[in-house]
Structure formats: structure tokens, C-alpha cells
Specification:
By secondary structure, this protein is mainly α. It has nine helices and no strands. 75% of the residues lie in helices and 0% in strands. The longest helix has 40 residues. It is elongated.
């Protein structure tokens, strides 16, 4: 009798599955509202409030630094099976911060909102979504799903840059942020809660628990195709 325990068989994940489609729509909306919208809103804010670009983009830089720092605990939480909680709560909190941002009058409140959104990018954008996909299908089946998810996310700038500019033109930057906040609260949080099901994840062998999803994500992110799509 052998003492070796075989890793469970992971099924390949179709890029057309409801799971990937839901995550993909979430990526379009998350990238569009939490990343691509910032320069447009910042420009309108600067004109309205008389703030300089260093005032505005300094907060964004702080947010990016905090996103990098937050990625490690987020990854640990997802590897422990909390992907639904991380991404759904991340989207809901991001929505609340966008709503709070729409009401700011001072630089301190603005910086707090943008820094908080930066932290929540670590819970809502590509890397947590890729980790969730890897937990669903494993290292041997995740690449197709991650590639499809990257394609979905590549549409974020195409969809949201004109949408956000239209909202600013019609409703002003405060109204635009309120709409973006609602998208995160209702659509993104709802999609993440609906399609991410920890019960559907395959069990991870004890020896692979530390590197399972992270290894897949890093392997995909080393591919030139990933960056070509992500930066498109």
C-alpha cells in the first residue's frame, strides 16, 4: 500500500463559462472605475477646486504603494478559501469610498478616499481574480481562464474612458463618482458574490497550499501576451 497521496485532478476551465464571464464583467467595471477613471475625474476636480496635479496625483501614488503592500495579505486570504469574501467585500467597500470621494471638499479627505481605493485595488483587480481562478481549476486548468479574463479586462479602458467622460460632462465629477460607486456596490460586489463559490474549489494538497495559485498567477504574468493585453 503506497503512502503517496495524489493531487486531485483539476478540470480545465472554459473561458466561456459563467464563472469567467461574471469575473470578466467585474474586471471591466473594476478596472474602469477604480483605475482608468482617475485621470478624468482628477482633471475635472482640479478645475473645480483649484487643486494642483501634485495634490491629486500624490494621493494616487500613495494608493498604488498601498495596493502593493496589501497584495500579500489578500493573496493569503484567497489561498485560505476566502476569495468570495475578499472580492465581494472589496468591491462593496470601493463603492462606498467612491461615494465618499464624491462629497469631499478638502485634500485630507480626498487623500484618504483615494488611498483606501488603492488598497482595495489589491482585492478587486487582476491578481486576486487570477488567484480565484487558480483555486477553482488548479495549475493545469487555470491558464485558459486567466487568458480569457485578461481579454475581458482589456476592454475596461475602451468602455469606461468615454463613459466616465460622458458622466462628467452631464453630471459633473461628483455625479460621475456616485454612478461609479453604485456600479461597484451593486454590479461588481453582486457578481463576485454570485460567481465565486468556495465550495466549488478543488481541494489543494498540503504541499501545494503555499504556492498553488501564486505560481499560476506569476507564470501567466511573465508572459509578454499578458502585458500586451493588460496595457492595451
Amino acid at each position: 500500500m503506497s503512502g503517496t497521496v495524489e493531487a486531485p485532478a483539476f478540470r480545465p476551465l472554459s473561458g466561456r463559462s459563467l464563472f469567467i464571464t461574471g469575473l470578466g464583467i467585474g474586471q471591466i467595471c473594476s478596472w474602469g472605475s477604480l483605475y482608468y477613471a482617475f485621470p478624468l475625474v482628477a482633471e475635472a476636480m482640479g478645475r473645480d477646486l483649484g487643486w494642483s496635479k501634485p495634490d491629486l496625483y500624490g494621493a494616487a501614488t500613495l494608493g498604488l504603494i498601498l495596493a502593493g503592500l496589501a497584495s500579500y495579505p489578500v493573496g493569503i486570504a484567497i489561498d485560505r478559501g476566502y476569495g468570495r469574501l475578499v472580492m465581494a467585500a472589496g468591491s462593496a467597500l470601493a463603492g462606498l469610498l467612491l461615494l465618499a470621494w464624491s462629497q469631499v471638499e478638502g485634500r485630507l479627505a480626498f487623500t484618504a478616499c483615494v488611498a483606501g481605493i488603492g488598497i482595495l485595488q489589491a482585492a478587486t483587480l487582476y491578481e486576486p481574480a487570477f488567484a480565484v481562478v487558480a483555486r477553482r481549476s488548479g495549475a493545469t486548468g487555470a491558464r485558459a481562464g486567466i487568458t480569457a479574463l485578461t481579454l475581458w479586462g482589456g476592454f475596461a479602458s475602451t468602455v469606461f474612458i468615454p463613459l466616465v467622460q460622458m458622466l462628467i460632462d452631464i453630471e459633473g465629477w461628483r455625479g460621475a463618482l456616485m454612478v461609479l460607486g453604485g456600479i461597484n456596490l451593486v454590479l461588481c460586489a453582486g457578481l463576485h458574490a454570485a460567481v465565486i463559490d468556495p465550495a466549488a474549489d478543488h481541494p489543494v494538497p498540503a504541499g501545494a497550499a503555499k504556492t498553488g495559485s501564486g505560481g499560476v498567477v506569476r507564470a501567466v504574468m511573465r508572459q509578454p501576451t499578458f502585458w500586451a493585453l493588460a496595457l492595451a
